[in-house]
Design a protein that fits this description.
About 70% of the residues lie in helices and about 0% in strands. It contains six helices and no strands. It is an all-alpha fold and about 130 residues long.
């Protein structure tokens, strides 16, 4: 009886808590996503491109924000690790691989029509 109650509690808990990714994706209309897919993907190369080409697109602004955060992380991390002798120079290639992985994740999300935040840095909003 106790395990049955625990199972019911766990299933009701997961059903009551909506997936954060799904809630975030529901904030953008499918028309906005379809129009802004290309610009959202390109935001990771040139973060301000969606702001110039489609300034009214919430989806484009989201990915422009994520691209700006990634740019700031990459620039700051490279500068800081380049200044630190030996340990920083050893960590620099690992940091760049991490940044490349985030970059690829952003490209895939942008071109794929997903509005998922990047791990570690994605929770910040600079562009609103």
């Amino acid at each position: 009886m106790m395990t049955e109650q625990n199972n019911n509690f766990e299933s009701s808990e997961t059903a009551a808590a909506p997936d954060a990714e799904q809630v975030h994706e529901d904030a953008y209309s499918s028309e906005d996503i379809e129009k802004g897919k290309t610009m959202a993907g390109l935001a990771y190369l040139i973060f301000f491109l969606p702001l110039v080409v489609c300034p009214d697109s919430k989806y484009g602004r989201f990915h422009a924000n994520q691209g700006l955060l990634l740019l700031i992380l990459a620039a700051a991390g490279n500068i800081i690790l380049s200044i630190i002798p030996i340990v920083g120079w050893i960590l620099l290639p690992l940091f760049n691989i991490f940044t490349l992985v985030l970059f690829i994740m952003g490209l895939v999300n942008g071109f794929g029509g997903k509005a998922t935040r990047l791990p570690v840095i994605g929770k910040f909003d600079i562009i609103k």
